[in-house]
């Protein structure tokens, strides 16, 4: 058991060390923190890379499908973001998706509001 804990500690230290080269200065970080809080989420740590192995978990948390992600980004595989943005941490990738989710959900609410308004109007005639 102690050996497993030691291995986990070493792996965590290596991940943090590798994350030192990731960009940490994003003007929208405070906004992303607020968006995450609004969704009862905590953004990933800065040292985690935007590796596609983490994406499925975040798609689920954000109620987003892979298909929706591909339509949004124009990518054809999950690794493209990291290939194009190797210095970006997972935190920034999640932040961008949170911005999209805010817009998506607001548009959905506006649409449903219009549909509901039209139905009420039709019923009054």
Category from helices, strands and their pairing: mainly alpha
The number of distinct β-strands equals 0
Largest sheet: none
Order of helices and strands: HHHHHH
Helix content: 55-70%
Overall 3D shape: elongated
- Taken together, the total number of domains comes to 1
Strand content: under 5%
**What is the averaged pLDDT score?**
89
* Terminal Cα span: 73 Å
Rg, Å, rounded = 19 Å
- The low-pLDDT segments are none
Number of DSSP helices? 6
Written description of the protein model:
With 125 residues, this protein is mainly α. It has one domain (2-124). The protein is 66% helix and 0% strand. The protein contains six helices and no strands. Helix 2 (29-38) crosses helix 6. The longest helix has 35 residues, at 90-124. The termini are far apart. The mean pLDDT is 89.
Feature tags:
125 residues; mainly alpha; single chain
Would you summarize the structure shown here?
The protein is mainly alpha-helical and 125 residues long.
């Amino acid at each position: 058991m102690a050996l497993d804990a030691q291995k986990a500690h070493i792996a965590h230290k290596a991940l943090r060390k590798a994350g030192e080269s990731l960009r940490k200065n994003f003007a929208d970080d405070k906004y992303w923190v607020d968006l995450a809080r609004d969704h009862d989420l905590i953004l990933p740590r800065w040292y985690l890379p935007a590796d596609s192995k983490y994406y499925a978990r975040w798609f689920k948390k954000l109620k987003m499908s892979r298909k929706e992600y591909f339509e949004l980004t124009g990518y054809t595989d999950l690794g493209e973001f990291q290939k194009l943005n190797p210095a970006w941490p997972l935190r920034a990738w999640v932040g961008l998706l949170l911005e999209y989710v805010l817009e998506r959900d607001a548009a959905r609410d506006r649409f449903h509001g219009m549909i509901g308004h039209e139905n009420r109007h039709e019923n009054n005639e």
